[in-house]
Amino acid sequence: NAGVMQNPxxxxxxxxxxxxxxxxxxxxxxxVYWYRxxxxxxxxxxxxxxxxxxxxxSGMPKERFSAEFxxxxxxxxxxxxxxxxxxxxxxxxxxxxxxxNTEAFFGQGTRLxxx
Amino acid sequence: AQxxxxxxxxxxxxxxxxxxxxxxxxxxxxxxxxWYVQYSRQRLQLLLRHISRESIKGFxxxxxKGETSFHLKKPFAQEEDSAMYYCALxxxxxxxxxxxFGQGTTLQVKP
Lengths: 115, 111
Prior knowledge:
The complex is a heterodimer. By secondary structure, chain A is mainly beta.
């Protein structure tokens, strides 16, 4: 099992462009979580998805950010019209169904730089 | 407010010295507490969780509900323990993926 895969590892975008970050969960995992880590800060929860459903988006900025986890393919975090303040490391985690006594496994992150 | 606080950004010790990484939390209810570790150029991985009461790589952590603390301890630090350590909590509802993280503490173990 290759673990949670995120790509790209590094992404540079100019202000106003769109950023698409991808996350392939571990095999058998149907729960995906996105986190953002700003410089000098801890990881902050953004959104929790299951296949084709957004379960909890309480940490998502109200504008420009969206996430999906389609029936087939990776989960996508999309940031429209990026601004300098979006520069951060974005981490994805996945966990199997079942909840109790499960563990969330993290990807290596995508480092987004907005120039 | 729900919060995890790690007061030290950097903790530097010599090999063989005891280590204590501090973590305090603020949460109404019965949270589940975790320690995650990130070694250089590797992904974040779970080190231990309070409900399992395990000792991993010589590290232990005891949940002190009175002091709302979950400090990570190791009696004799090794150079390979050098890493970034994050304390985190979840609501205890069973959803172990929605976590509140502290700011992290870099542990540097000198030879």
